[in-house]
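Q: What would this chain look like folded?
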Amino acid sequence: MNSRKAITIILGILLVTVLFHLCIIVQLIPYDITWGGRLKTDAEMYVFESLSLLLNIVLGWILLIKGRYTRAVVSIKLVNTILWGFLFLFVLNTIGNLLAETNFEKLFALLTLALAILLWIVLRKKT
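A: My prediction, written as structure tokens:
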């Protein structure tokens, strides 16, 4: 698989992920099945879901730059550094999802592992 195809797949996953988190914020999906089942109040949910949305949007923007879908406003070296950070984050998130209290969230370990592998492809191959 080439880097551009991996970026396109990740962007699709991110779009679905953003929609998922928006559904949690508007309470179409209960927040007690996310964040390892540790959120106890609406206020906690808003903080964590806002952070998640922000990180997903930043990752999408960085991938658009990496794939040359948009003009680079930061250096490619910084783009790659940020992507390595997200790769590390997805590996940690995979471990965290495996240790989650809910089976629903444990399933997300597959998604975060797939994202880590796709990011590895993006970082290891030329775009």
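The two ends are 11 Å apart (CA to CA).
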